[in-house]
């Protein structure tokens, strides 16, 4: 299934929000690594909102 331009932009914004939440959580926890969270944000966003229908 191909994504429309509007769907793509919406998912990019959701992934950016997810990265922001991950950064805040790691900051307030006082430890953690951003790499894994940031690199998987796009994949998890597309899976969750496009294919898992949530």
Determine the strand fraction and express it as a percent band: under 5%
Q: Structural class of the secondary elements?
A: mainly alpha
Task: Count every helix, treating DSSP H or I runs of 4 or more residues as helices.
Answer: 2
Distance between the termini: 16 Å
Q: What percentage of residues falls in helices of 4 or more residues?
A: over 70%
Kindly provide the radius of gyration, computed on alpha-carbon positions and rounded to a whole number of angstroms. Answer: 13 Å
Arithmetic mean pLDDT? 92
Q: What about the largest sheet?
A: none
Number of strands: 0
Count of folded domains: 1
> Unreliable stretches, pLDDT < 50, 5 or more residues?
none
Q: What would you call the shape?
A: elongated
- Helix and strand string, N-terminal first? HH
Describe the structure in brief.
The protein has 54 residues and is mainly α. It has one domain (5-51).
Structure description:
The chain is an all-alpha fold and 54 residues long. The protein has one domain (5-51). The protein is built from 2 helices and no strands. Helix 1 packs antiparallel against helix 2. The longest helix is centred in the first third of the chain and has 25 residues, at 5-29. The radius of gyration is 13 Å and the shape is elongated. The chain starts with a helix and ends with a helix. The mean pLDDT is 92.
Produce the secondary structure layout.
Elements: H1 5-29, H2 34-51
Helix pairs in contact: 1-2
Keyword list:
single chain, 54 residues, mainly alpha, 2 helices, 80% helix, elongated
């Amino acid at each position: 299934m191909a994504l429309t331009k509007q769907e793509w932009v919406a998912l990019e914004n959701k992934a950016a929000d997810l990265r922001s939440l991950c950064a805040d959580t790691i900051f307030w926890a006082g430890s953690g690594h951003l790499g894994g969270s940031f690199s998987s944000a796009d994949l998890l966003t597309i899976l969750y909102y496009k294919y898992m229908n949530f």
